[in-house]
Amino acid sequence: MSTTNSPVRHAIMPCGACGKLNRINMDRADAAARCGTCKAAIAVDAPVTLTDANFDVVVGKSTVPVMIDFYADWCGPCKMMAPVFADFARRQKGRVLVAKVNTDENPQVSLRFGIRSIPTLTVMAGGREVVRQVGAVPMAALESMVAGL
Question: Who's near 126: CB < 8 A, 6+ residues apart?
Answer without folding.
Answer: none
